[in-house]
Design goal:
alpha/beta; Rossmann fold; six-stranded mixed sheet; 10 helices; 10 strands
Length: about 250
C-alpha cells in the first residue's frame, strides 16, 4: 500500500475578480513522479506557489503527510509559513530558475541550506551536489550569472536539494533549454527520484517528456483539472495527443 505525501482538496486561488484555481483535487504518493501539463496561463505555476505558501488559498486545503499546511478557511493556525514548509520536507525549483546572479555557485548552494545549522552536514550536502553536477564543482567560485541556461538549471535543482526534501516541486525545468540539455535534466530528475527516493511533482510544457518519466499525470485547463490518469495512458489518449503532443 502506498503512502500519500501530498493531497490538495478543493483548492481555490483568486486574484481579485479572477479565479486562477477553481477547485483542484490531486494527490501524490511517496516515491512517485507526478506530472502536471497544460497550456500557458492554465494555473500550473499558481498551484505550485500555493503549495509552498506563496499564494494564499481562498478555499480548500493542502495536506502534507496527512497534516494541514495550507487552508482557505479563516483559521490562520492551519497555515504554515513557507520556511516551515521547506523545513518539513518540501522544496521548489521555480520557473525561470531564480538563482542569485551576483553570488557564486558555492554561495547559492549555501543559501539553499540556510535552515541547516550543522556546518559539517552542510559541507557534506554541498559535496553531494557537486557529485551530482560535476560542472558546478569545477566552477564553484564563479558568479552564477555567468553560467549557461542549462548550468543555471542544474544549480537551481542542486540548491533546492540542499534542504534534503522528501517532495520536490519543479516548475518548467526544461524552459528555454537546448534538446540535449533537456534530456540531461530529465535524466537527473529520474535519478533523484529513484536513487535519492525523492517524490516529485513536475510542471512542464514539454508534455511528452514529462509523461514519459512520470507515474501519473494531470491535465489542467483554465484553473481546472480536466483529466487524470496513469502517464502511460495519457501518452496514448487521443485528446492529449492532439492538444499537447503535436499528433
Amino acid at each position: 500500500m502506498t503512502n500519500e505525501i501530498l493531497r490538495l482538496k478543493d483548492v481555490h486561488v483568486r486574484y481579485g475578480n479572477i479565479e486562477a484555481l477553481k477547485g483542484i483535487n490531486l494527490s501524490i504518493n511517496e516515491g512517485e513522479i507526478v506530472s502536471l501539463i497544460g497550456a500557458n496561463g492554465a494555473g500550473k505555476s499558481t498551484l505550485l506557489k500555493a503549495i509552498v505558501g506563496l499564494e494564499p488559498l481562498t478555499h480548500g486545503s493542502i495536506e502534507y503527510r496527512g497534516k494541514s499546511i495550507r487552508d482557505g478557511s479563516r483559521n490562520r493556525k492551519l497555515n504554515i509559513h513557507t520556511d516551515k514548509i521547506i523545513a518539513a520536507g518540501i522544496s521548489m525549483v521555480p520557473e525561470g530558475r531564480g538563482i542569485f546572479h551576483e553570488l557564486t555557485i558555492l554561495e547559492n548552494l549555501e543559501v539553499g541550506a540556510y535552515l541547516l545549522t550543522d556546518n559539517s552536514e552542510k559541507k557534506r550536502r554541498i559535496e553531494e551536489k557537486f557529485e551530482m553536477f560535476p560542472i558546478l564543482r569545477d566552477r564553484r567560485k564563479q558568479l552564477a550569472g555567468y553560467l549557461s541556461g542549462g548550468e543555471q538549471q542544474m544549480l537551481t535543482i542542486a540548491r533546492a536539494l540542499m534542504s534534503s526534501p522528501a517532495l520536490l516541486l519543479l516548475d518548467e525545468p526544461a524552459l528555454g533549454l537546448a534538446p540535449i540539455i533537456i534530456q540531461n535534466i530529465f535524466a537527473t530528475i529520474s535519478k533523484i527520484n529513484k536513487e535519492d527516493k525523492v517524490s516529485i511533482f513536475l510542471v512542464e510544457q514539454n508534455a511528452r517528456m514529462a509523461l514519459e518519466i512520470s507515474d501519473k499525470g494531470y491535465v489542467m485547463e483554465t484553473g481546472n483539472i480536466v483529466l487524470e490518469d496513469k502517464s502511460k495512458n495519457l501518452l496514448v489518449n487521443p485528446k492529449v495527443k492532439a492538444a499537447y503532443l503535436g499528433e
